[in-house]
Amino acid sequence: MFDFKFAINSFPKILSVAPTTIILSVIATIIGLILAILIVIIRERKIKVFDSIAAVYVSFIRGTPIIVQLYVVYYGLPQLLVALRSMGINTKTNGLPVMLIAILAYSFNASANISESIRSAYHSVDYQQYEAAVTVGMKPTRAMTRIVIPQLITNFIPNFSNLFLDLVKDTAIVYNIGIVEIMAKANILSALGFKYIETYLDALIIYVSICWIFAKLFQIFEVVARKYISHTQELI
Questions:
Q1: What is the pTM of this model?
Q2: Which terminus of the chain has a lower count of CB atoms within 10 Å, N or C?
């Protein structure tokens, strides 16, 4: 039988670690966005050598499960530091924070997915608008910042929202490297009380709530961005 009392008592305990999930997701997304912009610049400008490296990197990340990437960083980063130390580079090879490892792994994952989303949004903008603006005397930089980038942003927000929410849900596996977040706490409590459906239902409610809140925030941001960009373009 479903134990309502156990579920109710477990809920605040699981909720208490929700900030870990949110912090990991937000930081990884911010770092991933910065890396994604660099990747897009490299690929769109077709910078020699780096273009090929970026393409392989994106293909590798998008073609492998996040848990594999997490394990590669978790086990590979300490070995890389050991190798650097053997080469005479002063590195600390012990005691790497698991949170740092998780942030790096999720940042790499986010950077590849976000970069493809940015490229898609960029190519969805009618390039003839940019050419027309330059033809009538607008500087290329101004045409890019006032015409192309604003439209790119509005086209990018919905996909960015989906990528962020996917990342929030993907953090459910970081308990594999010892981080106590929502799913880890649910597993701990369920193992102690031998009541699994109760704690997993609590975790489900918390995940749904977090994703709903952020989805609404992104929707509000999208509406505000579209109004601002529409007003700005009227002034051009």
A1: 0.90
A2: N
Where would I find the H helices in the chain? 4-15, 18-44, 50-62, 66-86, 98-123, 127-135, 140-143, 149-170, 182-193, 196-234
Q: What tokens does 32 get?
A: 């991933």
The fold of the 4-234 domain, in CATH, is MetI-like fold (1.10.3720)
Select from 154, 140, 142, 118 the least CA-distant residue to 37.
Answer: 118
Q: What is the pLDDT of residues 10-28, one digit of tens each?
A: 999 999 999 999 999 999 9
Can you give the residue ranges of every domain in the chain?
4-234
What is the rounded distance in angstroms from the CA atom of residue 62 to the CA atom of residue 117?
12
DSSP state of 236: -
Give helix 98-123 / helix 18-44 axis angle, nearest 10°: 50
Side chain identity, residue 6: F
- pLDDT band for 134, please (50, 70, 90 cuts): confident
